[in-house]
């Protein structure tokens, strides 16, 4: 499957929430979602309410749903839960999951010591990076993916300008901005991200 065809299977659910439907239905950080499409796999980056939302997880959780997250979020959730730390790798439902670091450098909302997460998942041969709530961090130079989902709002995460630099370091074939339009950030942040990467990295603006 080509990357452009695969990208059509990715739905932005607002904020940092995404759903990928490709045989296996995978969610990232469901929050204030308006869907009840059942999940095979739910990945949660950290325990903040806008990422670890037990109410939203219950909307999409079925009897066979597997939740992958870190230790703090796991305490708030129920079901089949796998706990990961940065550097861990596992395969669930034929999907490879790698846990990577996500943290702040110049603010205190997401301390590195918490071992909160971004994820790299491999689906249909395509590697997708969900950065979680993070600044532009040195570890991004080790990220090798086809698609990068990057926060752009500033305040709690990197700014749109920093996200542009992150995309230039990672150099995915495709990038999708997130973390705007809800708690902080707006469409202008996403448009800036796309404009500054014109001719460098293809960007899809979620709708």
Question: Could you write a compact summary of the structure shown?
Answer:
The protein has helices at residues 3-7, 54-60, 71-74, 160-170, 187-196, and strands spanning 10-14, 17-22, 24-28, 39-43, 61-69, 80-83, 89-92, 95-101, 117-123, 126-130, 147-151, 174-178, 202-203. With 207 residues, it is of the alpha/beta class. Helix 4 (160-170) packs parallel to helix 5 (187-196).
Q: Main traits of this protein?
A:
single chain; 207 residues; alpha/beta; Metallo-beta-lactamase, Chain A; 6-stranded mixed β-sheet
Task: Please describe the topology of this protein.
Layout: H1 3-7, E1 10-14, E2 17-22, E3 24-28, E4 39-43, H2 54-60, E5 61-69, H3 71-74, E6 80-83, E7 89-92, E8 95-101, E9 117-123, E10 126-130, E11 147-151, H4 160-170, E12 174-178, H5 187-196, E13 202-203
Parallel strand pairs: 3-4, 4-5, 5-6, 10-11, 11-12, 12-13
Antiparallel strand pairs: 1-2, 2-3, 7-8, 8-9, 9-10
Supply the CATH class: Alpha Beta
CATH topology: Metallo-beta-lactamase, Chain A
Q: Bin the strand percentage.
A: 25-35%
Largest sheet: 7 strands, mixed
Order of neighbouring strands in the sheet with most strands: 7-8-9-10-11-12-13
What does this structure look like?
There is one protein chain. By secondary structure, this protein is of the alpha/beta class. It has a single domain (3-203), classed as Ribonuclease Z/Hydroxyacylglutathione hydrolase-like (Metallo-beta-lactamase, Chain A, 4-Layer Sandwich). Helix content is 18%, strand content 33%. It is built from five helices and 13 strands. It has helices at residues 3-7, 54-60, 71-74, 160-170, 187-196, and strands at 10-14, 17-22, 24-28, 39-43, 61-69, 80-83, 89-92, 95-101, 117-123, 126-130, 147-151, 174-178, 202-203. The protein has a seven-stranded mixed β-sheet with strand order 7-8-9-10-11-12-13. Strand 12, helix 5 and strand 13 (202-203) form a beta-alpha-beta unit. Helix 4 runs parallel beside helix 5 (187-196). The chain is globular, with a radius of gyration of 15 Å.
């Amino acid at each position: 499957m080509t990357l452009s065809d695969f990208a059509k299977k990715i739905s932005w659910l607002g904020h940092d929430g995404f759903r990928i439907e490709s045989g296996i239905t995978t969610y990232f950080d469901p929050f204030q979602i308006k869907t009840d499409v059942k999940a095979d796999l739910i990945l949660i980056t950290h325990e903040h309410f806008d990422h670890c939302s037990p109410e939203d997880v219950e909307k999409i959780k079925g009897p066979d749903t597997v939740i992958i997250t870190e230790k703090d979020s796991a305490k708030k959730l129920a079901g089949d839960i796998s706990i990961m730390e940065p550097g861990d790798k596992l395969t669930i439902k034929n999907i490879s999951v790698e846990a990577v670091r996500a943290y702040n450098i110049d603010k205190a909302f997401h301390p590195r010591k918490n071992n909160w997460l971004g994820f790299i998942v491999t689906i249909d041969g395509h590697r997708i990076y969900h950065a979680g709530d993070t600044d532009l961090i040195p570890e991004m130079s080790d990220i090798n993916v086809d698609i990068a989902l990057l926060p752009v709002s500033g305040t709690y995460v990197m700014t749109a300008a920093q996200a542009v630099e992150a995309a230039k370091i990672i150099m995915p074939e495709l990038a999708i901005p997130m973390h705007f339009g809800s708690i902080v950030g707006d469409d202008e942040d996403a448009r800036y991200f796309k404009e500054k990467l014109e001719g460098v990295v293809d960007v899809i603006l979620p709708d």
